[in-house]
């Protein structure tokens, strides 16, 4: 009997994976799922989704000039199917605000409100602590390697 890999054992798969690429992909999915659960709980406590938190961070980074919906879409970590609806929700909760620009009245800019800033400030340390708890056992060199490999995996060579 062949020795099962970590993921193979974890999910009770009896046969080896068809491809190493398949195993790597499934490892990424399982890891993202496991690491994401405590973040999801933390965000839900404040009435946020992971995507909502990401948008608020983008807006905090943009400062007072804010960002257009298109710019926000380009900067989110995970694709959001309907950024407008997400921003509607953040606006209803008083976390973000929309305004039209004087230069082009058709252009709408989204900014972070004072409540949004307070919400993010309340999450900053708990988020850092979760990161340390989840990945702090890895050496800095391992984290750099992991980050480099993940970036490389997202950018396969052009065909």
Please characterize this protein's 3D structure.
- The protein is mainly alpha-helical.
- It has one domain (18-153): Arc Repressor Mutant, subunit A (Orthogonal Bundle).
- It is built from seven helices and three strands, in the order αααβααββαα.
- A hairpin with a 7-residue loop joins strand 2 and strand 3.
- Helix 2 (20-45) packs across helix 6.
- It is elongated, with a radius of gyration of 20 Å.
- It starts with 5 loop residues before the first helix and ends in a 5-residue tail after the last helix.
- The relative contact order is 0.10.
- The model has no long low-confidence stretch (mean pLDDT 91).
Summarize the structure.
With 159 residues, this protein is mainly α. The chain has helices at 6-10, 20-45, 50-62, 69-75, 83-92, 114-135, 140-154, and strands spanning 67-68, 96-100, 108-112. Strand 2 and strand 3 (108-112) form a beta hairpin.
């Amino acid at each position: 009997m062949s020795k099962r890999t970590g993921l193979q054992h974890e999910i009770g798969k009896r046969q080896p994976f068809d491809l190493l690429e398949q195993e790597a992909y499934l490892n990424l999915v399982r890891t993202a799922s496991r690491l994401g659960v405590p973040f999801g709980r933390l965000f839900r406590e404040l009435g946020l989704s992971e995507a909502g938190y990401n948008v608020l961070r983008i807006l905090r980074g943009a400062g007072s000039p804010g960002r257009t919906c298109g710019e926000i879409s380009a900067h989110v970590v995970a694709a959001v199917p309907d950024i407008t609806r997400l921003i509607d929700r953040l606006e209803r909760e008083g976390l973000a605000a929309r305004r039209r620009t004087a230069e082009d009245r058709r252009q709408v800019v989204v900014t972070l409100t004072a409540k949004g800033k307070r919400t993010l400030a309340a999450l900053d340390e708990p988020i850092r602590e979760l990161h340390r708890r989840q990945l702090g056992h890895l050496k800095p060199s391992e984290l750099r390697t992991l980050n480099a490999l993940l970036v490389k995996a997202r950018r396969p060579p052009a065909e």
